[in-house]
Structure formats: structure tokens, C-alpha cells
Design goal:
476 residues, Rossmann fold, 4 domains, 5-stranded mixed β-sheet, 3-stranded mixed β-sheet, binds zinc ion
């Protein structure tokens, strides 16, 4: 007797070409022809989720009614997930087929209920597919924030200069894209090396260089080439400087995402060069070295006179504005700057600039919970008799999961922590190589303050700053 084949096709909304109805039909035809069977009908369910029970589907459901059972012998589908994605529904269908003497074949899964072993396999396949899927879903939901905490890349387009890489633990990390990282470094160098000089490079001239060199833009689709805004955005990215990431416009302070592309010293210089540029457009004098550092005894800040005056001086803004009725005499810039330099470098000159290193938290709560769920599901399968304890594959899986659970439980959860590590740049280097803006940043970073009082030159200046970080001292 020629067996009569009922084909089943299912397509949900979001699927690709490889699951097209045409492809599914071809595989059903192929099996039918190869087994000398006769195709009576193909039940089509397009735009139907695999979570809908086969009995409830418009196409297939009709053929699974008891009164239509005599019309066919074998249910043939391309793969098991075309019949159902639910273990419970699959088991229900298996039971119905057994009661009605029907056979199920999933061509590309190699599943066929003709034999007893085939029936066991299709049950296992259904259960495992479901366990795997719930495992994946749980992970996807729980993981995004978790991953952000742990310094993994949570998704999206990596910053220019980086690419993402999958690691052994399944997370994605940002790693250097060698070609693009070299471009970023060159861009930064152009800005750093010419900062404050006559031949100062602008973002526009950097963009011109990139276009002249025919460096591809971050997105190849951008036919207009590099723009000054693009250059600025790339150089502003905190990841290339400090290894930090930005989420919704905020720098995430407590997580280090990647190795910075620039050395700490260069990051510092680039920062200075770019902020000087933002605050002082070309043609206007950059901030004096001691703006915000030198204070008058009356409580007002002192500012440096503009370059038109013969001798540069800091003068009390209170006096200047007639606000405080202050009568403080101006103080020569050379005098106060030399004083600060001596005092400051005396205290910290030979100390290295400290690099802040963020160590991400190591939290395995999510993975541990997931492993526990998998063990429970597998154990339930043994108990229900769906799995045979003699089957080595499954006892091995259970043992592997239990071993992983033990490992995870033994590994402590470590909260994120910050380390201060010395760099090879010393404060002296900033004085020798940096500009006024860099020196000013260093001073403000230590809350350095000079108070000017009435009195003779050399006696009227007092220097204060925050106590030097104990870690910085031991590192020296
Ligand atoms: Zn004053």
C-alpha cells in the first residue's frame, strides 16, 4: 500500500529565505518521492508562530481532527520546529499520532517515528529545543545590564577604532581594530602635536587629510567623506582616551570597556588641546596658567591681564569690578607662576601621573541561576521518564551542568573596584612638555590654590593644595 503523505509547512513573521515555503515544500517532495509515497495535501500555515499548537492551526489543525484522520498516513515536515516549537504540544501530537496509527517525519532533522527509537528521539529533540530556547531567552533578557556592569560590550556599533570580539564566556568585548586604531592615533597626534602653535591643525584639516589619504569613513555608505564634526566626535569618544563607554549620553564611570587607544599622557594632552579649543576659539588668548588657581585675600579670583600690557600681571577681579572695595596690588605673572611652579613641583614633581583603572564587577548570579534551571529541567525529564538514566549522553550533560554549578558557586562575586596605577608621565613632564592649559589642569586636579595678600613680593604668596594621594606617594 502506498503511504499517503500530509505535508506541513509553517512560516512565522520573522524568518529568512532558508525557511521559505518553497524550500520546505521541496524537502517534503523529496522525501515523498524517495519513499514511493503519494502526496495528498500540503497544509500551509503562513505567519503563524511555532508556539501555536498544531491542533489550533488553520491549515494543519483541520487534518488533525479525528474525522479527517483516515485521509492520510504520514505527517512530513522539513524540520521539527515547523510542526511545533513547544515540547508540550509536540508530545500531545505524538500521543495523538500513536493512537491513530500515524507516523511523523522531520526530513532534515532525521527524525522518523516509524521505530521506537525514532519516537524517543523526537520527544528528546522537542524537549531539548525548548530548554535551549528558554535558556537563550532568559539570558537575553537578563544580560544587557549585567554585561554593561561587567565591561562587556552590550551591543550596537563599536566606537571607531574598535571591533567586537566574542570571548570564551560568551560575552562580546571591544578590542582594537588595528587599522582603524592607527588612524585614530594619527588623528590625535595631529591635534596634540600642533596644539597652540601657529600651524595648529583644525578638525577640518584633519578631515581633509583623511579624505586626501582616501581613508574609508566609519560607514562605507557615507559618500561625502570625512567632516570636521566626524573627526571631533571620534576624538571626543571617552573609550579611545580612557576605555570608558557612553550610554545614553552619559559616560559610564565605573566600568572599563576596552583598552584605551591612547596612552594616559596623550589622552591628557588631547583632552587639554580639545577643551582649550572649545573654550578659546582661534584668535582669542587661551586661559592663563593660574586662572582659578590664584585668589586674592579678599576672596575673589585673580585674572591675568591681556597681552596688550607690557608686563603680564594677575589682578583681583573684585578690585577691578569695584565689588569688594579691595585695594590689592596687581601681582606680576612671572612672580606668582614661578612661585606656584616651585611649590607644586616640590610636592609632586617627581610623582607619576596616576592612571585610574576601573575593574569591572565579576558577577555570576545570572549564569548560576540559568545553570540551576537547566539542571532542574533535566532532572524533571529523568523523573518523568522522558529520559532514560542509562543514556550516556544525557547523564553526561547532567554531570557537566552540575560541575559548572559547583564552579560558579565557588567563585566569589566581586564588586567593581578602582585601582590607581602610576603612568610613566611625571608632573615635571607636564611642566616641561605641556602648555599652560595642561599645567592648569594638573594644578586644579590637586585643588592647588595660591592666596595673594598685601605685602612685599616673595612674602605675600601662600600655596595650598589637597594632601597628595597616599597611593601616589608610595608609587613614586
Ligand atoms: Zn581682592
Amino acid at each position: 500500500m502506498t503511504l499517503r503523505v500530509l505535508g506541513a509547512i509553517r512560516l512565522s513573521r520573522n524568518t529568512d529565505e532558508s525557511t521559505s515555503p518553497k524550500r520546505q515544500t521541496e524537502r517534503i517532495d523529496w522525501w515523498t518521492a524517495g519513499h514511493d509515497c503519494e502526496l495528498v495535501h500540503i497544509a500551509e500555515d503562513l505567519d503563524v508562530s511555532g508556539k501555536v499548537s498544531p491542533f489550533d492551526r488553520d491549515g494543519l489543525g483541520e487534518w488533525l481532527k479525528d474525522e479527517n484522520a483516515h485521509k492520510w498516513d504520514v505527517l512530513v515536515a522539513w524540520k521539527l520546529d515547523r510542526i511545533s516549537r513547544s515540547a508540550e504540544d509536540t508530545l500531545k501530537l505524538l500521543k495523538w499520532c500513536e493512537e491513530h496509527g500515524k507516523r511523523i517525519v522531520c526530513v532534515d532533522d532525521g527524525l522518523d517515528t516509524e521505530t521506537k527509537m525514532g519516537r524517543v528521539w523526537i520527544q528528546l529533540a522537542a524537549i531539548f529545543a525548548e530548554v535551549e530556547r528558554s535558556f537563550i531567552e532568559e539570558r537575553t533578557q537578563a544580560s544587557r545590564d549585567e554585561l554593561r556592569q561587567q565591561g562587556r560590550w552590550a551591543g550596537g556599533t563599536p566606537p571607531y577604532g574598535y571591533t567586537k570580539e566574542k570571548r570564551e564566556d560568551g560575552g562580546w568585548y571591544l578590542v582594537e581594530d588595528p587599522e582603524r586604531a592607527a588612524i585614530v592615533r594619527k588623528m590625535a597626534r595631529m591635534i596634540i602635536d600642533t596644539a597652540g602653535q601657529e600651524n595648529e591643525e583644525s578638525y577640518r584639516s584633519v578631515a581633509k587629510w583623511l579624505n586626501d589619504e582616501e581613508v574609508p569613513t566609519p560607514r562605507a555608505s557615507n559618500k561625502r567623506g570625512w567632516s570636521n564634526t566626524r573627526v571631533k566626535l571620534i576624538l571626543e569618544n571617552p573609550t579611545i582616551r580612557w576605555g570608558k563607554a557612553v550610554h545614553k549620553g552619559q559616560i559610564i564611570e565605573h566600568v572599563k570597556y576596552a583598552e584605551p587607544l591612547l596612552s594616559t599622557a596623550d589622552a591628557f594632552r588631547l583632552d587639554t588641546a580639545m577643551s582649550a579649543r572649545a573654550k578659546a576659539p582661534r584668535g582669542r588668548a587661551p586661559k592663563a596658567m593660574l586662572t582659578g588657581v590664584v585668589w586674592c585675600a579678599c576672596g575673589e579670583k585673580m585674572y591675568r591681564s591681556s597681552k596688550q600690557t607690557k608686563v603680564l600681571e594677575y589682578r583681583c577681579s573684585g578690585r577691578f569690578n569695584h565689588r569688594t572695595g579691595c585695594t590689592m596690588k596687581n601681582v606680576k605673572a612671572a612672580e606668582v607662576e614661578t612661585f606656584v611652579e616651585t611649590e607644586f613641583l616640590n610636592l609632586v614633581g617627581t610623582l607619576p601621573l596616576m592612571e585610574r583603572i576601573e575593574h569591572p564587577a565579576s558577577d555570576n548570579t545570572v549564569e548560576l541561576e540559568t545553570v540551576k534551571v537547566r539542571i532542574a529541567k533535566l532532572a524533571a525529564m529523568f523523573t518523568s521518564g522522558a529520559l532514560d538514566e542509562e543514556d550516556e549522553n544525557f547523564t553526561a550533560s547532567l554531570h557537566a551542568l552540575k560541575k559548572r554549578r559547583k564552579e560558579l558557586a565557588a567563585r566569589p562575586n566581586i564588586p567593581a573596584w578602582v585601582e590607581h596605577r602610576p603612568t610613566n608621565v611625571h608632573y615635571l613632564d607636564i611642566w616641561q612638555e605641556g602648555d599652560d592649559a595642561a599645567r592648569r589642569s594638573a594644578l586644579l586636579g590637586h585643588s592647588a590654590k595660591v592666596i595673594v595678600q598685601a605685602g612685599e613680593p616673595g612674602e605675600r604668596l601662600t600655596f595650598r593644595m589637597d594632601p597628595v594621594d597616599a597611593e601616589a606617594l608610595t608609587a613614586a
